[in-house]
């Protein structure tokens, strides 16, 4: 098990942890998951969600702040600044963010791919996960249990949950694919999470995956992951194609 959730990306891309975290948050801003005026979790909460120090979080927020996409105020919550003018200006500086490659594909293609990739990850994780990895997943689940009324914060914790399982699967190619596929339709997932009962349902599905991993049961882990992704697909499709 990697020492932290960013070990893989740091190794293959040779980026600092603050740059990796900044890229993930920027992706959520450009995709529309994080919207103008949204409050970000505190530095401590972001550090817990992503398995990094408060100093790393502070550095990442500083990088994003340099683009003008967040407003950091001492003694107050950090807020997202997402206007069309800012996005257009930042698109020139961050062209890879302005047009997320995965969003060019259709819903069915993406979720068929997610099911293939993440079911394989779940099977591998069931065989390879160690006690440290299980403890980290338990911490994330404990955080998610408190976020039933915080859809944006829950989505951040959700990304951390899937990322950590991919880390435990110890396959760089599968991990990279799963990370890219996760970005698809994040703006629609925000609408889904805002509906009554959706966060609780997703949390219960995460619990089922966690229990299977605790049992080191590859078949159960694969089934639980597929059930979860089927649910994600159905609820996302209902919003994208009402």
UniProtKB/TrEMBL annotation:
Record InterPro entries: GntR_C, TF_FadR/GntR_C, Tscrpt_reg_HTH_GntR, WH-like_DNA-bd_sf, WH_DNA-bd_sf
Record SMART domains: FCD, HTH_GNTR
Cross-referenced Pfam families: FCD, GntR
Keywords (A to Z) from UniProt: DNA-binding, Transcription, Transcription regulation
Record-given protein name: FadR/GntR family transcriptional regulator
PROSITE patterns: HTH_GNTR (PS50949)
Gene3D superfamilies per the UniProt record, alphabetical: GntR ligand-binding domain-like, Winged helix-like DNA-binding domain superfamily/Winged helix DNA-binding domain
SUPFAM superfamilies (alphabetical): GntR ligand-binding domain-like, Winged helix' DNA-binding domain
Domain HTH gntR-type, first and last residues per copy: 15-83
């Amino acid at each position: 098990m990697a020492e932290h959730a960013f070990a893989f990306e740091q190794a293959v891309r040779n980026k600092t942890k603050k740059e990796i975290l900044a890229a993930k948050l920027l992706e959520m801003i450009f995709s529309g998951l994080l919207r103008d005026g949204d409050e970000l979790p505190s530095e401590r909460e972001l550090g817990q969600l992503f398995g990094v120090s408060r100093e790393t979080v502070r550095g990442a927020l500083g990088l994003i702040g340099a683009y003008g996409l967040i407003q950091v105020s001492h003694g107050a919550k950090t807020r997202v600044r997402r206007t069309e003018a800012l996005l257009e200006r930042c698109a020139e500086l961050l062209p890879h963010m302005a047009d997320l490659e995965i969003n060019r594909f259709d819903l069915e293609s993406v979720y068929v791919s997610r099911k293939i990739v993440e079911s394989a990850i779940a099977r591998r994780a069931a065989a390879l996960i160690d006690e440290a990895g299980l403890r980290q997943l338990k911490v994330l689940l404990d955080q998610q249990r408190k976020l039933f009324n915080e859809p944006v914060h829950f989505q951040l914790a959700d990304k951390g949950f899937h990322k950590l399982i991919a880390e435990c699967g110890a396959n760089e190619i599968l991990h990279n694919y799963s990370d890219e596929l996760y970005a698809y339709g994040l703006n629609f997932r925000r609408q889904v999470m805002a509906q009554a009962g959706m966060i609780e349902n997703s949390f219960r599905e995460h619990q089922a995956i966690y229990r299977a991993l605790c049992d080191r049961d590859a078949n159960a882990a694969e089934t639980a992951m597929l059930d979860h992704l089927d649910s994600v697909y159905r609820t996302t499709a209902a919003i994208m194609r009402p």
